[in-house]
């Protein structure tokens, strides 16, 4: 009887099953990091039925040109002064209704934090890093005011309370307790940051 000279064949019938199991293993065990992004609320789909009248003194305008320069309330301002200027505007308390505001009560500036709006506008050629830095400074102004109010009322920073409240691993009883505290501070200094349309020149 003649012997075969060919190489022995490898049984590859189960290779597809092994590859499929490996694929499922990596899909289940891999963690995908997600970026937090910017916390912004989009405008509603339909415009409001009634026009909302906003007094110009309650709007704090910040413009960024393509060179990264800031025009704040129609005056050039360095970036490191932006946070302090925003804080002064937000807690001005011109109408006297804000008993926790420590502002100068300038009648030409915002009435109270619930009416104060920061309007950010940038050029189409503005660098993204500049845009994010300005955003951080403006959000930092809100956080500084909220931290100060939270320290005075609850003895802890607002940012710590909020991060613990938003953490999904926090016990539900603790989250329920933090919910009212976080909302109270947010209502004292509501974050009203409006982004106007960009300009091309």
Automatic annotation (TrEMBL):
Looking up InterPro entries in the UniProt record yields: ExbD
State its location(s): Cell membrane
Predominant location: membrane
Q: Name one Pfam family in it.
A: ExbD
Signal peptide region: none
Keywords tagged on the record = Cell membrane, Membrane, Protein transport, Transmembrane, Transmembrane helix, Transport
Q: What's the source species for this entry?
A: Flagellimonas spongiicola
State the membrane topology.
Single-pass membrane protein; Single-pass type II membrane protein
Q: Which PANTHER family match?
A: BIOPOLYMER TRANSPORT PROTEIN EXBD-RELATED, EXBD MEMBRANE COMPONENT OF PMF-DRIVEN MACROMOLECULE IMPORT SYSTEM
Which family does the record assign? Belongs to the ExbD/TolR family.
Q: What is this protein called?
A: Biopolymer transporter ExbD
């Amino acid at each position: 009887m003649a012997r075969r000279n060919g190489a022995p064949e490898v049984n590859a019938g189960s290779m597809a099953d092994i590859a499929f199991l490996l694929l499922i293993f990596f899909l289940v065990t891999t963690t995908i990091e997600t970026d937090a992004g910017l916390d912004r609320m989009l405008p509603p789909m339909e415009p409001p039925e009634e026009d909302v009248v906003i007094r110009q003194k309650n709007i704090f305008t910040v413009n960024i040109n393509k060179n990264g320069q800031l025009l704040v309330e129609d005056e050039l301002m360095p970036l490191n002064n932006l946070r302090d200027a925003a804080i002064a505007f937000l807690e001005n308390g011109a109408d006297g209704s804000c008993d926790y505001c420590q502002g100068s009560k300038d009648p030409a500036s915002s009435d109270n934090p619930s009416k104060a709006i920061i309007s950010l506008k940038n050029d189409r050629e503005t660098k993204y890093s500049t845009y994010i830095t300005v955003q951080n400074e403006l959000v930092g102004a809100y956080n500084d005011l909220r931290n100060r109010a939270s320290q005075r009322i609850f003895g802890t920073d607002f940012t710590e309370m909020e991060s613990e409240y938003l953490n999904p691993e926090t016990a539900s009883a603790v989250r329920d307790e933090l919910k009212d505290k976080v909302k109270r501070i947010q209502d004292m200094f509501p974050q009203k940051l409006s982004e106007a349309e960009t300009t091309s020149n």
